# Entry
Amino acid sequence: MSQLQAKPVKVNEGELKEKVVAINRVAKVVKGGRRFSFSAIVVVGDGNGVVGYGLGKANEVTDAITKGIEDAKKNLFQIPLLKKTVPHEQLGKFSGGFVLIKPAAPGTGLIAGGAMRAVLESAGIHDVLAKSKGSSNPHNVVKATIDALVKMRAPHTVAFQRGISLAKVFNG
# Structure
């Protein structure tokens, strides 16, 4: 979490929807054989620009998912949305995972695969073109996607920082 710059957000827990991205079974070899435990990466979001992810580890799948959901609720981020899509093109990186997210016209749908799709759906993005480059490891893809979304800037903040009108931001 050290690479992410955005400030965490407080949200009513009743409106958060969770999605399990991946469940991994890990074996530890002990004297009597193998002991299995599970790790689950979970994404939560309110479908309106708030999204977070968490990792849970336990001896049972359900406990791992529950711990992942609790962790995800502690790591929520607010992302800017513009007409149910992202405001601009953005690259995200985490470890070996690289993602490219581009805005799309209304009606395009969510063109993204696997772990990226879960994050973008939870955030409430409906029209986007996305490509995962590099590592396909769900942990790296989820973190790279969150990284790209956190780097997004809303048009009105760009206009304010540059000291120009909102129309000038869009029309050049």
Observations:
- Strands lie at 17-30, 33-45, 50-58, 76-78, 90-94, 97-103, 110-111, 128-134.
- Residues 53 and 142 are 8 Å apart (CA to CA).
- The longest helix spans residues 61-74.
- The two ends are 35 Å apart (CA to CA).
